[in-house]
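User: Sorry, what's this?
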Amino acid sequence: MQYKTQMQAARLGILTEPMLKVAQNENVDPEWLREKVACGEIAIPANVHHTSLAPQGVGTGLRTKINVNLGISGDSRDYEREMGKVKLALEMGTNAIMDLSNCGKTREFRRELIAMSPAMIGTVPMYDAVGYLEKDLLDITAQDFLRVVEAHALEGVDFVTLHAGLNRRTVEAFRREPRLTNIVSRGGSLLFAWMEMTGNENPFFEYYDEVLEILRAHDVTVSLGDAMRPGSGRDSTDAGQVQELIELGHLTKRAWARDVQVMIEGPGHMALNEIAANVLLEKRLCHNAPFYVLGPLVTDIAPGYDHITAAIGGAMAAMSGADFLCYVTPAEHLRLPDLDDVREGIVATKIAAHAADIAKGVARAREVDDKMSDARRRIDWEAMYALSIDPARAKEYHDSLPPSEQHTCSMCGKMCAMKTVNQILAGEKVQIA
C-alpha cells in the first residue's frame, strides 16, 4: 500500500519504520503511537530525502524534545564554526537543529548538515529567500517564495517554519492594538514588510494549498510560525498573538486534510502566570497539535542570562503541555552565540525539558534521577558523572577543589551526610576529629 506521509500511513493503519523506532525509543505502544500520528497529536518529522535521520516523535505523551538554532549570518560567515556548533549539539543529544542561515553559501551548508545529522533538521525558508533568489525583498514574487520552500523540501529538510498566520486579519489586529515591541519575529517582520510594500496578501497564506502539496510530496512537517509572538512581557497574550493563533488553528485542519503533519510555534516573552493558560489556549484552538515554544522568557531584564529566563519558562510550558522547546543561549538579544553559549543553552533547555517530563509522568523520566540518587548514596563519583546532563562539567567542578577525605567532596569533607549514615548503617563508628 502506497503512502506519501507518516500521517497518511497512520490513517491507513500502517506502522512505518519511523513509527516503530519512535515507539521503541519512547517506550510506548506502537498502535497507540500510530493513532496519535493519525489524528495529529504527534508528529514525526521525517523527510523522505533525509537518509541519516534517527526519527523523533513530538507531541502528546512523549518526552519533551529540544531544538538548537544556528546558521550563517551576514556578520559572521564562518562555516567551520557553525559546523562545530552542529557537532557539539549532536554530541550533547539535541533532537533537532534549525538552520537559520540567511547569507552566503546557505545551500552548501544545509546539504552538508542534512547529510550528516541524525537529528531533525528545520529551516525558515523566508530567511533564505533573499540570498537563495539573489533578489531584494521587494522584487521577490509569491511564486519565488514557494520555489524556496520546494528547494528546502528537495534537499531533505524535515520541518519548515512558515508564518502563514500573518494574514490581513492578523495585521488588522496588530494595528488596532499597538505593541511595545511590535513584531519581533525575523521572518514575520520580513513578511509584514513585503505585504506592506507590495499590497499583497501573505503568499504562504494565499497559496497555502500549493505549499501543502509541496510538503506532502516530500513528507515535510509544517511548523506554523508565530510571527506575532510577544517580544516583551508587556505584549503577551494580546489581540495580535491570539488572532494569529486562531488563524493557525484553521491552517492546522487544512494541513491535516492533506495528510501533512503540523507543529504550532508559540511565545516568546511571557510572565510566569500566563504560560499555562497560553499552552491550554494553543491546545484548544489548534486541536491538540504539538506545541513548539521559544522559552518563554519570563523576564526582559536578564541579557547574558536569558538561557536561565528561558529555561524557567520552558519548564513551566512543557509541564503545562508544550511538546518541543527551542533553546535560548546566554547570547540571546546580544550577538551570535559561540560554542560555549551553545553548550550553556543546550544544558539549560535539557534541564527544563527533563524537569517537565518528570512532572508530566512521562514514561521512565524519573528512572535516571533515581539512579543518580542511588549513586550519590553510594558516593560513586564515576556513576554520578556518567548520569549527568553534562558529565565533563560535573567532573571539572568536583576535581577543581579536591577533598582531603576520599569519596567525599570539599563542601562537607568528613561531615558528608551520605558517608556518615552509610557507616552507621554498616555498624561502623563515625570519627570526625
About this structure: The mean pLDDT is 95. The chain has three domains: 62-360, 366-400, 404-433.
